[in-house]
Specification:
Blueprint lengths: L2 E5 L5 H10 L3 E5 L3 H9 L3 E2 L3 H5 L4 E4 L4 H11 L8 E4 L5 H8 L4 E3 L2 E2 L1 H7 L2 E6 L2 H12 L2 E8 L3 H30 L3 H8 L7 H4 L23 H18 L4 H18 L7 H7 L1
Parallel strand pairs: 1-2, 1-4, 2-3, 4-5, 5-6, 8-9
Antiparallel strand pairs: 7-8
The protein binds nicotinamide-adenine-dinucleotide.
Nicotinamide-adenine-dinucleotide binds next to helix 4, helix 6 and helix 11.
Length: 287
């Protein structure tokens, strides 16, 4: 069993760290927020007095932080305390540039996740991992204690790249699905009939068949509970902003990604920030 430093014990980090403890690892956690530290202690996670002390002597050091600036600051603070042979994993969703900058010259993986807080609680996250193959192999048992699917995407930054590309595609497909239902309503076509046809036709996609944005066809989708998240719109806005930043830096033409960001920013500003991202159908109906 490994000695693990875990920095960032928020909505995702706390249940992930708890799953590492459950798997028998020795975890030393840290969070700058007193409330997060209190919740972690109550969940049975041993705490260090600083990020550097959480990292000192650990074989694996993980961060699960809000954004790139926090990730750069935390790794700068931990650098001297981190053993050179320790494998470092950043599981936050950040820009590709930050992922590559913090990995430079270090044994480090970018390992963002999908699956949300439920996946973190249940240990069923998907990890998209960028970095050296031998480091991925070394970290695999640690990732398997927190997730079900681990995909090695390539060199440093490719885990974040996979996350940003996937979520841009998800946003576009969700808006398309919502527009199709909104048009069907105007044309007198029932939700059930459109679902029946599109789920067996070329319009089929995850946003339709797993996460349907109207109540009824998929009983477990957020549409059936007033668009309580799920995946909150503010997180989608963050990820779309990162994908547009990456597209700009790489010279990729992503007009639908840009349009999706503009629409989700508007939905967030109109009160949707904390609601599920599929709730954008209500804004699209209003026009
Ligand atoms: P959160 O805000 O609940 O948790 C982040 C924690 O980091 C907070 O407790 C904060 O106090 C702590 N923190 C900030 N700076 C710190 C520092 N320098 N040192 C130590 N602790 C510090 O956020 P979250 O929902 O857990 O998300 C974490 C990351 O996971 C984000 O990058 C997010 O985009 C990504 N993510 C979240 C979800 C989700 O459903 N919540 C899903 C997939 C990915």
């Amino acid at each position: 069993m490994a000695r693990i430093g875990f920095v960032g014990l928020g909505k995702m980090g706390l249940p992930m760290a708890r799953n590492l403890v459950t798997a028998g690892h020795e975890v030393l956690g840290f969070d700058i927020s007193p409330a997060a530290r209190q919740a972690a202690a109550a969940a049975g996670i041993a705490l260090a007095p600083s990020a550097a002390e959480a990292a000192r002597g650990a074989g694996f050091v993980l961060t699960m932080l809000p954004a790139g600036a926090h990730v750069r600051a935390a790794w700068a603070e931990m650098d001297a305390a981190c053993a050179p042979e320790a494998v470092r994993l950043d599981c936050s969703t950040v820009d590709v540039e930050t992922a590559r900058a913090v990995a430079q010259g270090r044994r480090m993986l970018d390992a963002p996740v999908s699956g949300g807080t439920m996946g973190a609680e249940n240990g069923t996250l998907t990890f998209m991992v960028g970095g050296a193959a031998e480091d991925v192999a070394a970290a695999r048992p640690i990732l398997e204690a927190m997730g079900r699917t681990i995909v090695h995407c390539g060199g440093p930054g490719t885990g974040q790249a996979a996350k940003l590309c996937n979520n841009m595609l998800l946003a576009i497909s969700m808006i398309g699905t919502c527009e199709a239902f909104a048009l069907a309503e105007k044309l007198g076509l029932s939700h059930a009939a459109l679902f029946e046809v599109a789920s067996r036709s070329s319009g089929q996609c995850w946003s339709l068949t797993t996460y349907c944005p109207v109540p009824g066809p998929v009983p477990g989708s957020p549409a059936n509970r007033g668009y309580a998240p799920g995946f909150a719109t503010e997180l989608m806005v963050k990820d779309l902003g990162l994908s547009q930043q990456a597209a700009g830096a790489a010279g990729a033409h992503t007009p639908l990604g840009a349009a999706a960001l503009a629409l989700y920013e508007r939905f967030a500003a109109e009160g949707g920030a904390g609601r599920d991202f599929s709730g954008i159908i209500e804004m699209l109906r209003r026009g």
